[in-house]
Automatic annotation (TrEMBL):
Protein name in the entry: AA9 family lytic polysaccharide monooxygenase
CDD domains: LPMO_AA9 (cd21175)
Phylogenetic placement of the source organism: Eukaryota, Fungi, Dikarya, Ascomycota, Pezizomycotina
UniProt GO cellular component terms: extracellular region
Keyword Oxidoreductase belongs to the record: yes
Cofactor section: Cu(2+)
A GO molecular function held by the record: cellulose binding
Domain remarks in the Swiss-Prot or TrEMBL record: Has a modular structure: an endo-beta-1,4-glucanase catalytic module at the N-terminus, a linker rich in serines and threonines, and a C-terminal carbohydrate-binding module (CBM).
UniProt domain Auxiliary Activity family 9 catalytic: residue ranges: 19-230
Species name: Sporormia fimetaria CBS 119925
Positions with biased composition (Low complexity): 408-432
Amino acid sequence: MKTQALILGLAAAPATLAHTIFSNFFVDGVDTGPGIAMRMRKDPATATYPLNQLDSNNLACNVDGDKGVSRVQKVRDGATLTFEFRSWANDPSKIPMDKGHKGPCAVYLKKVDSAINDPGYGDGWFKLMDDGYDAGSGQWCSDRLIDNGGLFSVVLPKGLQGGAYLARPELLALHAANAGDPQFYTGCAQIFIESDGNLVPESTVSIPGYVKKTDDSVTFDIYNRDNSEYTIPGPPVAKLQPRGAAAGNVNRVAAQEEGLRPAGCICENGNWCGKEVPDYTDEKSCWASAENCWDQADGCWNSAGPTGNEGCKIWQTKCEGIQSQCRAKNFPGPLNKGKDLTPQRRTIDVGLVLPTQGGGVIDTPKTDAPAEAEPTPTPPAEEDSPVEPTPAPSAPAYEPEQPEQEQPEQQPEQQPEQPQQPQQPEQPQEAPAPTPEVTITQAPSEDNAPAPTPMSCPEGYKCVTKVETVVKTEVVYVTADAANVRRRAHGHGRRRMH
């Protein structure tokens, strides 16, 4: 039976294994916004890379995760948190993760003085839930996450001590664990729990430190062992107790002060916020406001991370509209002053809820309203304008070239498979070989990852090991020329003033 399980597992494995990234989270079914209040790897080209150096501080909140972002998400006591994983951070239409990435998942919390300033790594973490392999269905937590569109949820225990926390979802892929390459996927959400409760964990653990490279949980051979014997890494789900000696001790927490949405914010992209430009009443002040708009656009593009730049595009359209008004001498302005351009947040059916006591899955009832589709940003309408806005020559300069998501077609010949089609097994075109042939693909992992080692081959089968090669694309954003283009775009109007 073990040999049969190995054959089935290998036959289903695609030639290219898609990695994943924690890209979004929801509070009570409402999207907080892509990348908002989240720590993740900033480089889009490597954002989905796994972590396998178990003694690295990166294991806490990922590469770049030791530095907080400017936003902190407010969360009510007992709220439902939903974590979204994607194979492409800025494209929810792609698969969440390749089905070959089988393994457990968990959620950790860390109480901190500041969700922005705490480095994340170190002691203070406690496990809120975990979920591994279900022998009845033959599924791992990763399988259930994929079936649920990359989403899994957990309900916060009612009465947790209020204040700032880091919330850390964790996926562990075990497809190469027997070759010394366990692959962790994680990140951290910065949250503030509004609660006057006093429940705290009995004990906490350090990340890194909560799992070692020799542990069975990260070396487990899912192909040749009974998966029902698997033990999830890390501590057990934490037991909560009242803080202090007296059970009636109540924690009085001040209102959230850090990480709030900035006053006057009318457009968001990740943790960047655009604010309304100064009023203008003549041509000179109009061009000054246009320059202010484009300066803010620079900040948006420069800060855009793996989750994309849709908010920057919306803001850029606003800047182009102001330029059009300046050329047409259409004053005063700005039009639609103070209008919030941020698209309406998605709402979802929570679906898969993982219990805080570990083991098993609770499927919550669906809501009456269907989940809304990903909103398509619409540019602000230039109402009351006698002149139809025309695209400004400067626009292309403010949209940096994004790495082509479909570039695997241009990769070296040893990578014929495209990452966006990981579920299509290779179709042999030649005559069948005398013995069945099975392909084992080792996906690349973190920098300095151990070289893949051959996996055992079932008797009567010919196994071929293929090693993926990753070509890293460096993207350089240049803003100096963009500023010159902007000045050329409206310089003529300024010359007329003089």
